[in-house]
Design brief:
The chain is an all-alpha fold. The protein folds into two domains: 76 residues, no CATH class; 182 residues, MetI-like (MetI-like fold). 77% of the residues lie in helices and 0% in strands. The protein contains 13 helices and no strands. Helix 8 packs antiparallel against helix 11. The longest helix is centred in the middle third of the chain and has 36 residues.
Amino acid sequence: MYNYLAYRFGTSLAVMFGVSIVTFGLVFLTPGDPAEVILRQQLERQPSQQEIDAFRAERGLDEPVPIQYLDWLSGVLRGDLGSSYYTDTAVSTLLVDALPLTLELAVVSMAVALVIAIPTGVLSAVHRGSAVDHASQFGALIGVSMPNFWLGYLLILVFSLTLGVLPVAGAGSYSQLVLPALTLGTGMAAIVTRLVRTSMLEVLEDPYIDTARTKGLRERIVVYKHAFRNGIIPVVTIVGLQFGSLLNGAVVVEIVFQRPGLGMLLVDAVFERNYPVVQGIALFTALIFVATNLLVDASYRYLDPRVSLGGETA
């Protein structure tokens, strides 16, 4: 197991290296000179060529792209993600300031998704072919198909503008977290519900479930003690991976509800051509995905000793 995890750690480093190249390179494909755009906003006039050249030299933008990448990568390895073109604030500081709101939204959305998905998926599997099953599958289909931004505006229309029971936007209170968490959590709940149902259906057809029933165990014990324990294992993978997706989904949701988290920070940085901030957020998000995958792999063996990692026999 440890050899496999060491191998996975090595591949994760390779993935992060590839992500760093793509992250750094893609921002230079956008049209226009960032130095000119930024100076025009700061000076509120068209900058002179001398001012543009001075800005580029100060920020290292006059160097060849490979040299810029190596300088940026060496800073990243030292924990320095650069600084904002506009405020000279360290990107790491901006991330630390914005991250709590995004993590809060992701964690609460995850809780909403699991509270909805696990009981719904189990009931759907246990009552396969019933009205409950059809209703849950129909609801999951709607949840998967519905864009987050549309659901967010719909919830604002109903609960904020019509009923007036929840605030439209902002952050800092629990009431301001309800609608964003519902918006982000319902989409994930639809995915997890279908996974739980499929996994439980497979487990309920295993021979040991029939054996448990023939021994006279009550159906509730068979389902929730024996079947559920093994059926929930595949959900660990999707939940771990979806947590990273929640951080990405938070970008749209934070814009809709005007939450000053990583999503708002990223969108503002893109429109401002604030490349260090864009690169820092993209690299950090990729790190979350990679770390989540490693944790899922490590937890799998402990959740189910029968699982074989890296060719090992359990």
